[in-house]
Amino acid sequence: MIKTTDGAGGAGHPAPYDDIRPATRADVARVKEVTDAAYGHYVQRIGVVPAPMEDDHAANVAAGRVFVTGDPVVGVLVLVPKADHLFLDSMAVHPDAAGSGLGRRLLGYVEAHARGLGLPEVRLYTNAKMWENRRMYPRFGYELVERRVDGPYDRFHYRKELPPRP
User: Fold this and answer.
1) Residue 95 has pLDDT above 90, yes or no
2) Residues 6+ apart with CB under 8 A from 93
3) How far apart are CA 123 and CA 146, in angstroms?
4) Is the bond leading into 120 cis (omega within 30 degrees of zero)?
5) CA-based nearest residue to 52, from 130, 111, 116
6) Tell me: the pLDDT tens digits for 25-56?
7) The predicted structure's pLDDT at residue 1
8) What SS3 class is residue 46?
9) Helices (H) and strands (E) in the chain — how many of each?
10) Nearest CA among 115, 25, 14 for reference residue 66
């Protein structure tokens, strides 16, 4: 059921992020499944296992960094608040939900979450060989800051300054 609100969606309109929630311990296995399904096809292309597939999902959930949507879960965010920005550590959309607009909604949630924490920008990075992401992030207002090699990972770092709340 979609809730309505007088807030983000306006009176009687669906609240755009009501179905995105903090993950619980019961979600850990599905968080791993979705992450592996979303990133697994990149292993051959980039020549290493993408970092999100090797994360300690249980620790991230316990730390309150993981947000999910769907029943079963089809979308996963790993968000790390920093002093001056929100770091989007990982975003995973299960292939079954690809093309549904879920990625766009998850990015919107990230920005709303950052604003809610009083943080003025979102930062993230993606592998240089994940060209789909490198095309997507600029379409949503993210600017390329630098390209940097971190161990086996060749990464493009992005940021998006968030406009002040109206």
Assistant:
1) yes
2) 34, 38, 74, 75, 76, 102, 103, 106
3) 12
4) no
5) 130
6) 999 999 999 999 999 999 999 999 999 999 99
7) 25
8) helix
9) 6, 9
10) 25
Segment 12-20 mean pLDDT:
69
Q: Please name the residues in contact with 155: beta carbons below 8 A apart, sequence gap of 6 or more.
A: 125, 126, 127, 128, 147, 148, 149
With contact defined as beta carbons under 8 Å apart, do 58 and 8 qualify? no
CA distances from 56 to 47, 70, 165 (A): 21, 21, 34
Instruction: Note the pTM of the prediction, 2 decimals.
Output: 0.89
Burial class of 22 by CB neighbour count within 10 A (0 to 12, 13 to 18, 19+) = exposed
Q: How would residue 166 be classed by pLDDT, with cut points 50, 70 and 90? A: low
- pLDDT at position 164, please? 75
Asked if residues 8 and 16 have their Cβ atoms less than 8 Å apart, the reply is yes
Q: What is the C-alpha to C-alpha distance for residues 76 and 89, in angstroms, rounded to an integer?
A: 11
Calculate mean pLDDT across residues 108-118.
96
Q: Which two tokens stand for residue 150?
A: 């971190």
